[in-house]
Amino acid sequence: MIRSNCVETFEQWRTEARRLIAMKARPSDVHWQTDPDQLSLFEEGTSGSDSRQVSDRKTNEQSVPANRTFTVPQDFLKLAENVACHRESGRWALLYRTLWRIVNEQRELLKITTDDDVYQLTQMQKAVTRDVHKMKAFVRFRKVADDPETFVAWHRPDHRIMRLAAPFFARRFKGMRWSIFTPDESACWDQTSLQYGRGVSASEVDSDDSLEELWKTYYASIFNPARVKVAMMKREMPVRHWATLPEAGLIPKLLEQAPARVEKMIETHEGFGQTAMHFMPSEMDLSSLAEAVRQCSACDLCQDATQAVFGEGNPSAQVVLIGEQPGDQEDVQGKPFVGPAGQLLNECLSQAGIDRKDVYVTNTVKHFKFIQRGKRRLHQKPNSREIYACRPWLEAELSVLLPKVIVCLGATPSQALLGRDFRITRSRGKLLQTEWCERTLATWHPAAVLRMPDESRRSQMQEQLIGDLQLAVSES
Ligand code: URA
Q: 360: which of 255, 313, 350, 467 fits an S-S bond (Cβ 3.0–4.6 Å)?
């Protein structure tokens, strides 16, 4: 039996796995050690005299040069990084067995979704991704300091996901200072960098005051006011303009206004209160989400629309199609893409050899936005506030489905997932990586095809849409 060094993180597992592959250690011969106490017991010499025993990193590195180079598919690394956060104690062994099989037996192993190891890893990955989403939805901050304004939260995730989730909070609340405590680990954002610290148990946070005390004890000191002001200034005004400012009066004023601006941001756009996060169900599955979306009033569109229209399709779909928002008929029937654009989409799917029942179809915004003109309801493009407020529903769908390929139909979903500068005319049909999927591509919205007055251009766009759908399926 070969004992691994003590492994607690993905990086440690990766180093260890590389070394074990290099020494041709068969998975069934490796005992993965995760408990540092066990390791020290073992180091005291209680575990026999196997010459291949691995009890000390230095000795191992000297005795087994890791000179066997190998590469693995990117998908595996991503999967392993997620699975590493799962609490299941057998995860390191399962990951190593899969790695061994990819390197020595079947490079395309991950494509065999019925394989027991691949299936188990995928289920674990889904559990971790859902847990990350739950953390995004349920973390509630409270203010613990005014100058500079600082927020803290405590959360108990099912898995060890702090490092997977923290970058999301840093992006979303980048202009604020916050700490999130979990029993495994805590994360702290000072407007410029993330720092990780020790975990905090539930018993340590039995009241709101204890959260504040904890923060003061461990984290207050890392906020450097000098750096905060520079960060604030950069937010307020690009650095290149500083020199031309009538600086004496303006800079202090801007700094003075900054806390109020943060407050406003919280209440309005980037805030904790004004998005669909507040309507998330505690169970993260498609039917609970579809039920919960009916109560959503995160933006004003719910007031005039008949109902929220949630996504629909195969819950195991490898390909997810995302439109803009329900149209008139979708609003009445409560189903996505059932009107004229939906009919064209169906036609394109079938020409691409795809059964609509095999994919999942949804929208960026779940309520119909329109203006009434006599008896007609004319479609209106959702604005960025509405898209932002609705985004948690789409993110929840994607984190449950974990599609292999996402197809964005038109500008609204494309810009929501690929950034505001994204242009279909420039980058249609390109496979791009997003936070949600390794392969995300954008193509024409069927309604844009229908609206195109020039007939030859229209049929060209339709051909391109069909081609892009075929590409999506071939990549899934
Ligand atoms: N257009 C969309 O973007 N989505 C629909 O569901 C219908 C039309």
A: 313
Pairing verdict, β 194-198 and 30-31 = unpaired
Q: How far is CA 374 from CA 33, 35, 173, 340, 380, in A?
A: 71, 71, 43, 21, 15
For residue 326, how far is its CA from the centre of ligand 1 (angstroms)?
Answer: 4
Ligand 1 interacting residues, C-beta cut-off 6 A: 323-327, 330, 336-337, 339, 341-342, 363, 447
Domains of the chain, by residue range, sit at 2-131, 139-204, 218-268, 281-475
pLDDT tens per residue, range 190-209: 888 999 988 888 777 766 67
Question: pLDDT grade, residue 216 (50/70/90)?
Answer: low
CA 449 to ligand 1 centroid distance, Å: 13
Give this prediction's pTM: 0.61
User: 327 C-alpha to center of ligand 1: Å?
Assistant: 5
Closest atom of ligand 1 to 409 CA is 3
pLDDT of residue 328: 96
Which DSSP state fits 111?
G
Summarize pLDDT for 227-276 with one digit per residue, the tens: 444 444 444 433 434 344 333 344 444 444 444 444 444 444 444 346 88
